[in-house]
Amino acid sequence: MTNSTQPLIRIATRESALAMWQAYYVKNKLELAHPELTVELVPMTTKGDQILDTPLALIGGKALFVKELEVAILENKADIAVHSMKDVPVEFPEGLMLHTICEREDPRDAFVSNNYTDFDSLPNGAVVGTSSLRRQCQIKALRPDLVIKDLRGNVNTRLRKLDEGQYDAIILAAAGLIRLEMPERIKQHLATDLLLPANGQGAVGIECRTDDPVIHNYLATLEHTETRIRVLTERAMNRALEGGCQVPIGAYASVDGDQVTLKGLVGSLDGSQIITDEVTGHTDQGEALGTQLAKQLLAQGADVILKEVYKD
Ligand SMILES: NCc1[nH]cc(CCC(=O)O)c1CC(=O)O
């Protein structure tokens, strides 16, 4: 907020189509709820956007996509940042907080292909594009014959690489394709029990300065309680597994009345070992449930798998 007569909120955002869509989504919701408010976008290129051909795990992970945005807020060049929750590191820098979690879009992964109608119809040895260790380990467990090939870049880049014939199929979050108005690209929604999503997948979160009550007040109208419970439950599991950046970990929570059920998965990269478990409890115990499920997974051998993954 820079001007007391004309309230203004500046959104720091990456320039990818999906990031811009999410920033406009928040801008529109804020302006609808608060007609006196002006919301401006501050687009910026992050380090993560510039390094497109190196596997994420090797360049230091997802933090690269949010750091510039966070610095802009801390330096008061912007007021908030809008993130895909699954790209937000579990811890926040001093002075910043995750304030708002908006209503979740479809959390599932999507099977995308120009030649095949569904996952089961892929022939022996077909090439599947994904750079996500979580997707890789689960696909290899389901179909050890498939060949996983690295696939980086924003959603449109990934679709172009598929269309160029570099892959028989690719796996993308359904939410990204729906938001970018390409639902027809989704040949099959992969059930969460078949391919457990990433923590936070499909949800948008808003980060801002911890000490900024005026902004907090404006943001409150965008909050979605059930999504918050689900996403914080999932994130608590990842945090307890120390699953900071690129990890073969799935986490998915659903709410039924006052009960939340969390399913978790840790897999070895070749898919030869997959450890899954679930817990159910009261919705006001979500984060404790996440921590508990992480302990159960570790006790069942996830500790050995993760040690092996982090070693490389
Ligand atoms: N890792 C990139 C990323 N971050 C968020 C989404 C999709 C939208 C979402 O999960 O909110 C995507 C693309 C993908 O995984 O296909």
TrEMBL record:
Its EC number(s): 2.5.1.61
Keyword Secreted included in the entry's annotation: no
All residue ranges annotated as the Porphobilinogen deaminase N-terminal domain in the record: 9-215
Cofactor: dipyrromethane
Free-text remark on how the cofactor is bound: Binds 1 dipyrromethane group covalently.
Keywords of this entry: Porphyrin biosynthesis, Transferase
Domain Porphobilinogen deaminase C-terminal: start-end pairs: 230-298
General remark: The porphobilinogen subunits are added to the dipyrromethane group.
Protein name: Porphobilinogen deaminase
Gene source species: Psychrosphaera aquimarina
